[in-house]
Amino acid sequence: MKSNDNHIYVIFGASGDLTKRKLVPALYSLFVQNLLPEKFTLLGVSRSQFSDAEFKIAMESAISEFKEIDDTTRIPEFIAKIHYQSIGFDDVSTYLLLKQRLEALRVENEISGNTVFYMSTPPSLYGIIPQHLASVGLNAQDDGWKRLIIEKPFGYDLESALILKDQLLKDWQEEQLFRIDHYLGKETVQNLMVTRFSNGIFEPLWNRNYIDHVEITSAESIGVEKRGGYYESSGALRDMVQNHLLQVAAITAMESPSSLEPVAIRNEILKVFQSLRPIKREDVKTNAIRGQYLSSTIKDEHIAGYREEEGVHPESVTETYAAIKFYIDNWRWGGVPFYIRSGKRLPTRVTEVVIHFKPTPHFLFSSGSVCSSCNQLVIRIQPDEGVLLKFGMKTPGAGFDVQNVNMDFHYSDLSHQRMPSAYERLIYDSMKGDATLFARTQEVIEAWKFLAPVIDCWKNDREVPLYGYPAGSWGPESADDLIENKEMTWRYPCKNLSDDGIYCEL
Ligand code: BG6
After folding, report:
1. Cβ-based neighbours of 96, under 8 Å, separated by 6 or more
2. Buried b (16+ CB within 10 A) or exposed e, 441-477
3. Nearest to 49 by CA among 10, 15, 99, 95
4. CA 72–ligand 1 middle distance (angstroms)
5. DSSP 3-state assignment of 340?
6. Which of 77, 244, 350, 495 could be bridged to 183 by S-S, CB 3.0 to 4.6 A?
7. Rounded CA gap, 439 and 180, in Å?
């Protein structure tokens, strides 16, 4: 990093879970790799009353507990750079205190006005904190750059996202805003672009002529754990689909950018969002399926249903599973269905993009069904990151029986190469001012606009079913009916039960 990138990193919500689990361990990892600027200070800010010493102790144990990097020898050196300031988030007078504290730290550490403000707070504060920062001049860039990083969710629906957008853009410029979508920081999501645009063999096939449909699956075996309160106001559609998975879909579908400049890449991503075919209200029932997990017994263990979870209303109608079918109306994708499904308490944890290719025009060989040898390119985002190509091979012996075989690349084969966490990558980019992997305001608004009919119907139309599915199953069976091509199904990447706490092996 250049020496003029020296800066203070301010985390609002410093006493929260994200700070200790992800942000501070990622910052320490950058420090160990000498990727932080020479002069760097971290200021934790929240409502809780901590002394600097108490906060340092808490962060020291967080770095050891949620380890991002093996080398722990430099923890004391890093901890010396950490400070803490308590403020009342909605009390404007305390922002003057914050300003004074920042000035004192700058003088002490010889750092210019460069500052990152990371909003790791409840979303209800996303409007108010930036507004108060601006009211004491902490958005002004005359003495150095100021950047605002905002965690998801950006709004609750289209209307609230538009209000938040106006609130932020009143005092901040779009270039100062970095909307984190941690999926964009995942190595394998970025690799989607490399797979597509660095290989001559895939790109010619990447269109409506050869692709039957595109599937994006994100399954989690855990339930909502202690986040019932948050999840009740969110649900699978807002929590995963509106942001992470539509972003993944956009990268899968985008045109090649003219360069790697952030604006070139983000323009192509935005075009995909703008080409999403609006879902008509009357089609919601057939194009979007929702479900909620029910209690079940897995390996003699009772698994609570969603309505029994802490913080969840006993008659909650919040979906823990969402599947949608949609189209991207442009030349490349005209008529190709895209499917996204995401759910909690499914049989395993897996996120993957599956390109289902069309079958051959005429099938010569004997086989179970036409598509038992259909080609699939599986881009495994997590876990066991990698790329898998499935294709048909002759079964040895008499006749011409065809079986499906795999060409399988695993990132773990690159054993000498460390995979940085998504937060590590995104924090580093935000320090460099590289916004490529951050969602632009307009993308977020387009995504809300696209999902608005589904959100509205699921909220107001009692005729739209909320299917129950037993914890540990693949979700409502009706989601299978979404797939148009009856020769094909969702990919069910695992079959066998395993002993290690996830329900099935990949
Ligand atoms: C978060 C959601 O954004 O992403 C969580 O709020 C979800 O509900 C998580 O569990 C999944 O992230 P990852 O990186 O574990 O796939």
Report:
1. 136
2. bebbbbbbbbbbbbbebbeeeeeeebbebebbbbbbe
3. 15
4. 27
5. strand
6. 244
7. 7
Lookup result for tokens 């909320």: 466
Residues marked active site are found at: 244
Structural contact between residues 120 and 47, judged by C-beta atoms closer than 8 angstroms? no
Of the candidate ranges 164-173, 311-320, 432-441, the one whose mean pLDDT is the lowest: 432-441
Q: What residues does CATH 3.30.360.10 cover in the chain? A: 184-353+418-482
Non-local (6+) Cβ contacts of 366 within 8 A are 399, 400, 401, 402
Single out the residue of 259, 178, 245 nearest to residue 427, CA to CA: 178
Q: Identify the pLDDT of residue 502.
A: 45
How far is ligand 1, taken at its centre, from the CA of residue 418, in Å?
Answer: 22
pLDDT of residue 468: 96
Spatial contact of 245 and 342, defined as CB atoms under 8 Å apart:
yes
Average of per-residue pLDDT values in the chain: 92
CA of 323 from ligand 1 middle (Å) equals: 16
Residue 239 has a CB neighbour count (10 Å cut-off) of 23
Out of 2.60.40.1120, 2.30.40.10, 3.30.565.10, 3.40.50.720, the CATH code matching 7-151 is 3.40.50.720
Beta strands in 97-143 (DSSP E): 115-119
Nearest CA to ligand 1 atom 15: 220
- The set of protein residues with a Cβ atom below 6 angstroms from ligand 1 is 220, 239, 351
The model's pLDDT over 193-251, given as tens digits with 9 standing for 90+, comes to: 999 999 999 999 999 999 999 999 999 999 999 889 899 999 999 999 999 999 999 99
Residue where the block lists tokens 């003029």: 4
| Shortest-distance atom of ligand 1 to CA 243 | 3
In the chain, ranges of CATH 3.40.50.720 domains: 7-151
CB 194 within 8 A of CB 184: no
Strand-strand pairing, 177-179 and 211-219? unpaired
For the CA of 186, the nearest atom of ligand 1: 14
- CATH class assigned to 184-353+418-482: alpha beta
Q: Please provide residue 165's backbone torsions phi and psi, each rounded to the nearest 5 degrees.
A: -55, -50
Q: Say what the pLDDT of residue 500 is.
A: 44
For the stretch 26-38, pLDDT in tens is: 999 999 999 999 9
